[in-house]
Write a structure and sequence with these properties.
By secondary structure, the protein is of the alpha+beta class. It is built from 6 helices and 8 strands. The longest helix is centred in the last third of the chain and has 16 residues. The chain is globular.
């Protein structure tokens, strides 16, 4: 499979079964919101569908290869694999809002109250996506933030724990100005999320 695929948590995504603004994890604790919800591109993220069911964040995935001096590029077949000298790996990406926290991962209410936030692309492996699927099944990530604890930055070892609520959803009800500021940034970042996965290049 070549190119990019779009999908949401819980959906059947062929790219997964077939094998800048980028976040570079550092050791520590983080609180994030999965902001790539339906209708984000229109500036009106949807937290529940018409039946009141939680919506699912969207992701982008692609099979990528790596070559020194070139970087990551999409796998478009055997000729590309020859250039890289090996098989491609499936990589997933989405867009997160990072909230200000203490070193212990507790929300810094002063900075939060001052409108502090960051929007970043997170590029990660399929095994982490599977973990997120499991969490989302019980704690929908349109309704709950996620605490991420990074224990090894070099190998991106981390653990996940859902929060009791979503700061982004709360802002949609209590602070429209802050909420709309986040949306304006998130729209731009998420529109370019595939660029953080790999370059789409010709053989030449």
């Amino acid at each position: 499979m070549s190119g990019f695929s779009d999908f949401t948590l819980g959906s059947s995504a062929p790219i997964l079964s077939s094998g800048k603004s980028r976040w570079k994890p550092e050791k520590g604790k983080y609180r994030v919101t999965f902001v790539a919800l339906p209708n984000l591109e229109d500036g009106k993220p949807v937290f529940e569908d018409e039946d009141g069911n939680p919506t699912n964040p969207s992701f982008k995935g692609g099979r990528r290869l790596y070559k020194q001096g070139v970087g990551y590029f999409l796998d478009h077949g055997p000729e590309y694999q020859k250039i890289a000298g090996g098989p491609s790996k499936t990589t997933v990406a989405t867009t997160l809002v990072f909230w200000p926290t203490s070193p212990n991962g507790v929300l810094d209410k002063t900075r939060f109250g001052n409108g502090d936030f960051e929007v970043k692309t997170w590029v990660f492996s399929v095994d982490k996506y599977r973990q997120l699927e499991s969490i989302n099944a019980e704690f929908p990530l349109s309704q709950h933030d996620l605490n991420i604890t990074v224990t090894d930055a070099q190998f991106h070892k981390m653990s996940f724990a859902p929060c009791k609520d979503s700061l982004f959803k709360a802002l949609s009800e209590k602070n429209k100005d802050f909420y709309n500021t986040i949306i304006s940034v998130a729209k731009t970042v998420h529109a370019n999320v595939q660029n953080d996965i790999a370059q789409d290049m010709t053989l030449d």
